[in-house]
Amino acid sequence: MPRKDNNIPFYVAAPTSTLSLHETSDKVKIEERDTKEVSHVLGKLRIVPEGVDCINYAFDVTPFNLVTGIITEDGIFSPKELLKRYNK
User: Fold this and answer.
1) What is the mean pLDDT of residues 3-14?
2) I need a labelling partner for 83 at 20 to 30 A (CA). Which of 25, 39, 52, 56 fits?
3) Residue 67 in contact with residue 3, Cβ under 8 Å?
């Protein structure tokens, strides 16, 4: 079933080892990866102008109300089903 904003289903693929069900989004530290992964192709060819700063987050935090389902190695779950199964 599609969720809120654009009436388009949105699925998240995430291994259960990456689930942070006991943290609030303001407590999650989002890792920043090497900016060359964004600014260069194959680590060699620069594709952005000199002086342009890049940000390369390793992941983001998606509010559950925007998520249709979470795909894990155990199956596909709605946000409520996921919390019921793993939030112990």
Assistant:
1) 82
2) 56
3) yes
